[in-house]
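Task: complex structure prediction.
Instruction: return structure tokens for all chains below.
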Amino acid sequence: MAPRRRWLLPAALVGTLTVLALASLALGSAPLSPAEVVSGLLTGEGVPGVILRDIRLPRTLLALLVGATLGLSGAALQGLLRNPLADPALFGAPQAAALGAVQVIYSGLAGTLSLALPAAAVVGALASVALVVTVAGRDPGITVLLLAGLAVSSLAGAGTSAALSLSSNPYALTEIVFWLLGSFEDRSFAHLFLAAPFALAGSAVILMQGEALRALTLGEDTARSLGVEVRRVRLALVGAVAVAVGGCVAVSGAIGFVGLVAPHLVRNAVGADPRAVLVPAALAGAALTLAADIVARIIPAGTELKVGAVTAMLGVPFFLWIVAHRRDLFAGTAG
Amino acid sequence: MTDPALQLEQVSASLGGRLVLHAIDWAVPAGCFVCVVGPNGAGKSTLLRAAAGLIPSQGSIRLGGEPLAGLGSSARARRAAYLPQDGGIGWPLPVRDVIALGRMPRGARLGSLSQADVAAVAAAMRRMDVDHLADRPATELSGGERARVLMARALAVEAALLLADEPAAALDPRHQLAIMAELRAEARAGRTVVAVLHDLALAARFADRIAVVADGCLVADGAPGSVLEPGLLDRVFRISAIVETRDGQPLIVPWIGLVDD
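Output:
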């Protein structure tokens, strides 16, 4: 990779993010002009100020945080497993996190703004990722990995369905179903502050494993012979992804496929090096999620589309396209 | 008297609950090129992985006199380079970046390689004849090209001890001869090389010593001419071979596979 081009993609992504963030602040059921956005942000006064402060700014920041976390988590898991189809969702992590959160809400332990919610989501995500990695073994082929992930996420989904069907309160039922779909609608700074510690701590741990991820390109034996403590790295990454994704799911619901798609969007520009992919994948994930949230807002409909539905509708075709066309990425992977 | 580069005392190791190495005592003198030979499933790869500290083992392993168990992971990585058998490459990294991973134990980070790192990578590429592949994605190489790239990665570590598992298996005859000559040159330069090999002719032609492993035991260890004699070839490999001397070196050609009684 030519060193000159290294900064180009991050710069382009930051530019895109800025434009998207401004669009996200301006667009919605009450459109604001750029001038209103600027003055509303600066002064916080008037109707635009209230809209921005209470609705659009937290929503935008949360979409950026969740998107970046998902993009980074996807890149980390793909690097760890040397597998271009790895994604937190393929491990059932978001589904299991949702199950954990739903259990807390239904058992009446906590409201949706208590720390118990992300804690339960993190526990659910940890359990699912640990289960998949344990079942799939050290050097899993794609088939084993996908089947194990599918099984675990089906189990988590079944658990959530069971909780929903046993619910006696139809009002709470609707609320939870919408929450499960994944959305940034009506999220406040309180939600942002609830998710941020988990997302940021997990992301920091992931970013520290960059060199180890690069060494793992040559397999676990070679990485170990290069001084990488593979077992510790695997534990740190899996745990960090679960914590980060769990924290995000607790406030935004399950938003799929961002972690799968974001790393692929940047590989053409930064190369396949699993370390070089990390930060650009986070930026791409943030851009993707924010764009999906804007789309969800501006598509005319009786009620707002859920962002999780948008990312899934974009992500699933992309996933299938990767499977069909990027055979080169599977070169080092046992089928 | 210098310490052996590698010394094993009563080393045993198990894989999946099965005892694969049985109380091996073995010393590899510093600056020596040793080839480890033996039938399939004899425990050669396990021996190498145990010596590299990649799998748990009982007994004592010393690198240059120091207990392996007492070395931290990066100190161990600087002392012993390891080349796995059939090493895969998970991502289409450029060949040069793959080889530069060999500098990781020396604190090198891609994008900020020191002059010594760059020189070591360039030397390793030249010695394995992969200069012309430097910018190619490593996943798009032929089997033999990939094997040479991975060997170059191991050479780039510049460790005192190089443990290579079947470095010549995928290569064409010219590159087989070249890699063996390079490994011997590595030993002449003062490093110690232990290579698992199946080709007895190559082993006899280039190695300073040959260690024979059978059923998890070290059954012979010495100069090629004295180790690879008809009795041992019969007992361990179940072959009859043509053994001659050419230019003062043993020439061995496996000729007839013996039928088990």
